[in-house]
Amino acid sequence: MKMKQILATVAISAVTAFVVMWGYGKMLKKMNTYAGQEAGVVPSNYKFAGFSDGSPTPGSAVDFTAPAAIGTPAVVHIKTKTNAKQINNNLPKKQMPRNPFSDFFNDDAWDQLFGQQNRIVPEQRASGSGVIISEDGYIVTNNHVVANADELTVTLSNKKTYKAKLIGTDPSYDLAVIKIEAAGLPFLLYGNSDDLKIGQWVLAIGYPLNLETTVTAGIVSAKARSLGLNKDASGKAGTGVESFIQTDAAVNMGNSGGALINTDAKLIGINSAIASPTGYYSGYSYAIPVNIVKKVVDDLIKYGNVQRGYLGVTTANSGDIPEEEAKRIGLSINGEGLVITEVLSGSAASESGLKRGDIVKKINGLEVTLPSELQENVTKLKPGDKVTIVYSRNGKEYSTTATLKNKAGNFDLVKDNGLIQNLGADLANLDSKKAKDYGITGGVIVKKINAGALNDQTRMKDGFVILKVNDKDVKSVEELKQAIGTNKDITISGFYPGYEGIYEYPINLDNE
Fold first, then answer.
1. Cα 364 to the chain's mean position, in Å?
2. Which among 127, 129, 134, 256 is annotated as catalytic?
3. Catalytic residue check, 493
4. Helix (H, G, I), strand (E, B) or coil at 421
5. Which residues 6+ apart lie within 8 Å of 396 measured at CB?
6. Is 510 annotated as catalytic?
7. Catalytic residue chosen out of the listed positions 77, 129, 144, 347
8. What are the tens digits of pLDDT across the range 324-376?
């Protein structure tokens, strides 16, 4: 009897230990996940010819066969479809008033301002590239590859095809994350773009000109290039983040979103642009540094938007400042470094003691000589993160610490941007019976308009039925939220029950 009790106790203890270790392993795996990748995990495409631990095979630096073989399975072909857009009155015709605003406008005036627009935008198809960054299907690409697409299709190098869903985008960085439902995928390990040297060999992998997987080679010809290409969701260039890696690896249309790797087969950039008078490769290509990519990807996966830290300064290379401006800001040494030309009141820089005319030398130990270098180093951080800044003032060197803030001027991290809340309305799913009576399959009814964008920017009235956002059908409040996503500039389309016509309301949801 005692032996049975002892065996039972041992068995229970073994099972308990197994469960605890299994749970701990799961927790540890989750804790060690960053930007879609788990610490210590080496993907299958690296496990050959000396790459079993993720390290390169010793040998000639100009032999690209191994990194090309590793990189190509992890770069995908992204095809997008944007549905044909037609705006007209497709509701059942009834003998009813033409619009609900007859008391304020005559019909002709209303039609000129807000009435029906009979126009057709044909279906559009495009393609680009993407990089698998996790074995379970997370893919990073450019925002401009997937922007406004209604359908995303991903084809792997082995010709397997998947439908993809959008996880998040940020136009300011020109980056996006999409996901396919798959497991055990090859993926690229992150490198360190800060370690790149001018003259270093790199490979560009992608699907240019609708061709199959293509690998080209070149060298890093410059770093921290700013071209003025990236703009935020409202089209403003001032908040775009650019610190491109410039290479002479051949890149063409369709390479966007593809991989730039080093000879260790590590991802060091996402190919994004070319410098060309013709639209085709003419000698230079540009990639977003992977250290920026990692931060943006991590934020998009965890929070749905980018948690961007702001220092609150405007800077310029002192050699580019006109003599009169140099005198105005009290700059006595020209051509020395990165000069602060403006400090925003209440910003992290202001609170750390930085002033106009100070010359920034280092940030977190890294030398900065270009505004794009300063931006690159700050943009890798979140609100609440601290940065150490070495600067000179009147010939003397100082050091200070600044705590970065968000765009709103505080230290908060925001998981959900809640743009739907900025509409300022009580919303509900349209009753299925009423939808049938109206001859539609569903929609969202605006039950009551409160303080917010609808009240401030439109003449919309209670009872309006929303059918589309940016020409995407919405049949529920949840679909409305998804259609808005991170878009701050939207157009809502719908109708008023009992009245003819489809009405459009352009709205900006940025409440800042």
1. 25
2. 256
3. no
4. helix
5. none
6. no
7. 144
8. 766 666 665 555 678 898 999 999 999 999 998 898 999 999 888 888 889 88
Which of 303, 335, 367 is at the close of a domain?
Answer: 303
CATH code for the domain in which residue 206 is found: 2.40.10.10
On whether both 259 and 220 belong to a single domain, the answer is yes
Assign residue 321 the CATH number of its domain: 2.30.42.10
Domain endpoint, select from 340, 373, 403? 403
The H helix count followed by the E strand count for the chain is 11, 28
Give yes or no for residue 13 having a pLDDT over 70.
Answer: no
**C-alpha span between 479 and 443 (Å, rounded):** 9
Q: Is 437 among the residues known to form the active site?
A: no
Could you tell me if 324 and 261 lie in one domain?
no
The DSSP secondary structure of 386-419, one letter per residue, reads: EEEEEEEETTEEEEEEEE-B-TTSS----S---G
Token code pair at residue 310: 């702001």
Distance in angstroms (rounded) separating the CA atoms of residues 266 and 70: 9
CA distance 128 to 78: 5
Q: How far apart are CA 124 and CA 79, in angstroms?
A: 11
What is the span of the domain harbouring residue 348?
A: 313-403
pTM for the complete prediction? Answer: 0.71
Rounded CA-CA distance 158/146 in Å is: 22
DSSP per residue over 425-465, as a string? Answer: EEEEEPPHHHHHHHT-S--EEEEEE-SSHHHHH----TT-E
Both 322 and 392 in one domain: the answer is yes
pLDDT at 55 over 60: no
Question: Which residue in the list 174, 248, 298, 471 is annotated as catalytic?
Answer: 174
Q: State the total domains in the chain.
A: 3
Same domain, 385 and 318: yes
pLDDT tens for each residue of 203-254: 999 999 989 999 999 999 999 988 888 876 656 666 788 889 999 999 999 9
At 408 the pLDDT is: 76
Residue whose entry in the numeric block shows the structure tokens 């857009």: 85
Between 99 and 244, the higher pLDDT residue: 244
Query: DSSP for 83-126?
Result: --EEES--SPP-SS-S-TTTTTS-HHHHHHHH----EEE--EEE
User: CA-to-CA distance for 79 and 129, rounded, in angstroms?
Assistant: 8
Under 8 Å CB-to-CB from 104, ≥6 apart: which residues? none
